[in-house]
Amino acid sequence: MILDVDGVAFNYRSASVIRDITFELSPHQVLAILGPNGVGKTTLLKCMNAILRPKSGSVLIEGADLLTADRMEIARKVGYVPQRCEAGRVTVFDAVLLGRRPHIGWDMTDKDIRIVEAAIRMLHLEDLALRYIDEMSGGELQKVSIARALVQEPRVLLLDEPTSSLDLRNQLEILGIVRRVTTEHDVAAVMTMHDLNMALRYADRFILLKDGVIHAAGGPDVVTPEIIEAVYGVPVTVERYNGFRFVVPLDPETA
Ligand SMILES: Nc1ncnc2c1ncn2[C@@H]1O[C@H](COP(=O)(O)OP(=O)(O)OP(=O)(O)O)[C@@H](O)[C@H]1O
To answer: Highest taxon of the source (predicted)?
Structure first.
């Protein structure tokens, strides 16, 4: 097991947001965390990266307690791609290089440069490598943020709506990269997503949150019309095409 989340609960001030969140993830698995706006998906990701301290529960990575680790140790284990990235006056190359910080002291080696170059190429950012990130589009910035998380060489990759600013081609490319990285390395990924069909195509585990708790969890067969309607309040049918499930919303008036 690479990730073990047990009984995690979090409150903002006195308001409970998530509770009793328990699940495990093995290397090579891609988990999609699904659920309506405001249900606590980002809050859960932040608890899994110790950006937020859960009120109770534990997060273990390869058996080690993440919540008592120091920031550098966490950054060697967890790569986090936030929903919105801060854009400062640094070039794309330097922004990606920052992801190597947990692995290096004040100097860097040829290996670090090679890892940064490979990530820039993987995300097709070569032509933008010397551009300043505060002059980039939302989608370009999202790709920089993903490249930075990859060069951390984490064991667990957390991505908060990683395709929200991306066009269709870039969505397929980024989710394909997440799939490839988790297939080729002993890495697991957790993504929050709103696009159920992209989730069904690229993830193999699913958690559906409702009212701050896990309403359903499992493989693709957990995505049923009954569960989707219970979680999102929208009638749907689930179709199959080319081995994938597709969620098709129905007209609430006629369903
Ligand atoms: N800093 C904060 N202080 C107080 N409440 C917060 C804070 N951040 C988020 N919340 C509240 O916590 C709840 C969960 O927010 P969260 O961002 O985790 O939801 P989400 O499922 O990721 O939503 P979305 O799909 O819209 O991104 C929401 O009701 C939100 O208003």
So the answer is: Archaea
User: According to the CATH classification, is domain 3-249 in 2.40.50.140?
Assistant: no
Q: How far apart are CA 161 and CA 4, in angstroms?
A: 22
Q: Which residues line ligand 1 (CB under 6 A)?
A: 12, 17, 35, 37-43
Which pTM value belongs to this model? 0.94
143-197, pLDDT tens digit by residue?
Answer: 999 999 999 999 999 999 998 888 999 899 899 999 999 999 999 999 999 999 9
Helix, strand or coil, per DSSP, at residue 119: helix
Q: Which of 20, 23, 31, 25 is nearest to 57 (CA)?
A: 20
- Cα 197 to middle of ligand 1, angstroms: 23
**Span 3-20, pLDDT tens digits:** 999 999 999 988 999 999
| Integer angstrom CA distances of residue 73 from 49, 54, 65, 113, 152 | 11, 18, 11, 21, 11
**Which residue's alpha carbon is at the smallest distance from atom 1 of ligand 1?**
12
Three-class DSSP category at 131: coil
Nearest CA to ligand 1 atom 30: 38
Best CA proximity match to 96, nearest among 115, 72, 74: 115
Closest protein CA for atom 7 of ligand 1: 12
Closest CA to 44 of 14, 76, 3: 3
Q: Could you tell me which residues come within 8 angstroms of residue 233 by beta carbon, excluding any fewer than 6 positions away?
A: 36
| Ligand 1 atom 17, closest CA | 42
Atom of ligand 1 nearest to the CA of 194: 25
